[in-house]
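SAMPLE LOG
Freezer: B-3
Tube label: C17
Construct: single chain, 221 aa
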Amino acid sequence: MKSDLTFLGVVKKVVGSKVIVEISDQIPSSNPIIYGKIYRLGQIGSFVRIPLGFHNVYGIISMVGSTDISDEREQEPIQMKGQRWIEISLFGESYANQNFQRGVSNYPTIEDEVHIVTEEDLAIIYETKKRSMIEIGHHASSENLPATVDIEKIVNRHGAILGSTGSGKSNTVATILKSLITNSFSNARIIMIDPHGEYSTVFSDKSRTFAINSANPRILS
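STRUCTURE (predicted):
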């Protein structure tokens, strides 16, 4: 409802998965405090929620502004001079605050309400209750929300951890493996080829390290 602390604005235009939202001028601050947490309005990359009955449609903010909203396919722009607006890209939905899934089956329409996504909403989007989930850190948007990885999808599919030098690839691999062998997957067996010797000390208490050369393979630990 518009009286909710999370109310952000209303839908003014829908073009496929792109939605233009007029931000309400009744919001007292650009950094409202909601349930004890400060939120920044109109932050690029942040999420919003559009309630449609029992459905919640989620989008990510891709553009902000306060000028005319124009479209190359139209002769007349939407006249919203001086009014703050955001453009969001829809990416998923949930039913009755559970079972988040990517893709959108129900689209919003004109004057539908748009709300700020809270920690409870993030917990639905980043489902963490599955047994196959392992915790590797905390979400950047919330220190209370664990960042998890579905280990079943990792081991059953091909995957890659990519990034520039110094971005944290090695730490990410070490964190995933540590979470795997110290949680409910203690019987897992992992073989790691480590030509640079980066991981021999990380798992020294739970692993055996083999040094291999052309003449004499040997066990180091």
